Amino acid sequence: MKIKITFITFFAICFLGVINYSYIPFDRMILIPGAEFLMGDSTKINNQSSDIDNDIGHYVKVDSFYIDKYEVTNAEFRLFVEKGGYFRQELWSEEGWRFVRSNNINGPGFWDDPDLGFSHPDKPVVGVTFYEAEAYAKWIGKRLPTEAEWELAARGTDGRPYPWGNKSPDYTLANFLGFSKSTSKVGSFPKGNSPYGVSDMAGNVMEWVNDAYESGYYTYGPKENPKGPPPSVLCFRVVRGGSFMHSEENLLTYKRFRFRQNFWDKFLGFRCARSK
After folding, report:
1. 38 CB contacts (<8 Å, ≥6 apart)?
2. How many Å apart are CA 257 and CA 33, to the nearest integer?
3. pLDDT by residue (tens digit) across 199-225?
4. Which CATH number fits domain 7-275: 3.90.1200.10, 3.40.1740.10, 3.90.1580.10, 3.65.10.10?
């Protein structure tokens, strides 16, 4: 069962002003121009099979959209907690509302962690399920990015394997396995930004995207603004980007992962998007 916030911690969050979050701008979004790009593993473009790790190369067209420059931070998510987001049913999907209420969840799984939690306002929030990411995005007037949007924002239109280009990852470019035992403050690796200036799209934390996972979806799915197959209860959702706990091959811009909607861990966070 997911760890819930203790009463003492919740009191501190809501009333004592432990963290000064007044400086946080909520307009830190980057416009990604609409484009057609090669999505997936270009080395498999002639391969007729598909797998979760590296979808075969396929051309996709995506309309212009905005995406958060940074992963959602503890300070930002704190406001969602403080404003009662976990108790506002209108923000949640039916499955998500049932999940948080039946498990008595009122905060992220690592909120009290001394290395990951609310005492680090500029680190990405972690320990959130897909349901929580989705509810936060709705509360803030945004949404989760589609998988295609996420990959375009990460790699651009030149098919680069990493957000910064072709160079293999090192510890000036991303937070990945061997660099740190914890997350980094968002934006700590500007040299590793994507061609559009989006930060931490490789390493730090993996990120939920909106798409449900279905094997082979991109071999038959729409080639313009794909949104993934219809989700089902407790379906798998796609996760992107690698994390501080993952090796360099997991930082590839086309690398895919999947987890159940109710999964959460210390390496898993999210960022938001918004249609233009």
Report:
1. 45, 57, 58, 59, 157, 159
2. 26
3. 999 999 999 999 999 877 877 788 999
4. 3.90.1580.10
